[in-house]
What we know:
By secondary structure, the chain is α+β, with helices and mostly antiparallel strands.
Amino acid sequence: MRSDTKNIHQQKINQAIDYINANLHKPLALDILADQMCVSVRQLLRIMRSSLNESLSAYVSRQRMERAVMYMQTEKMNLTKLAEIVGYDNSQSFSKAFKKQFGASPKAYMNELNERLKKFVKTNDKSQNILPSEICDEDELDLVYIRIIGKYGEKDLYETAWNKLVCFLHDHQALSENTRFIGISFDDPNVTRSDRCRFYACASVQKKIAQTGAFGTIRLQKGKYAVFTLKGSYSGLQELYNNINVNFDYILRYGVAFEEYLNSPRDTRDVDLLAKIFIPIK
């Protein structure tokens, strides 16, 4: 594939994934999605399968179910409301799709997930790494990103992505002492199969950057966050997330949790690193 064609395909993939992520509450008909991407339905299906290693319909259905799990972790709601906000007409069709995806009813699955997290935290308790949380209000933040799909924290995959991102910033004269390095995990490895977890390696930008090739843009919305700090290797981030899930004392709001690396995200040392996790709260 020619490099310019590859860049166009990567840009279309970014647009499709970001559009789906923002519109899971809508029907997402193939012709509408193809029109958004300015491609034919046939091209859309081919491009997305090559990128996702699963059919587009399977991807959308899985995203709906995994989004439902996130909502159920955020607050209690009846199945009718839950079905509506992940794009289903009624609770019966939602429950059927959920059981097909996870092999259990929503209630049974959440009970199992919560028990699994409690056992994990008890077995792998590293709470000494968790500093007292703080509450802060964050303004909107414009980011440029490169997407990783694969096991959360996989060293070679992540190092390659961060190196590419920093080079991109240099090339566009967008790297400064005020640049913030942000990580966004759109999937929970406790729920999503490890090889399908989406992670965005991001950097804040002060000027408009055009989407090109593998590099997309995203805006974090302003809001209130509970902030938790990790000292030590970034490999401890997932254990910190698990501890937060089990021991969280705030009311969650719908929003994007993110990580900020106070050292360079390319730093692979096991000590003297600092990272913060921002959890959206009401």
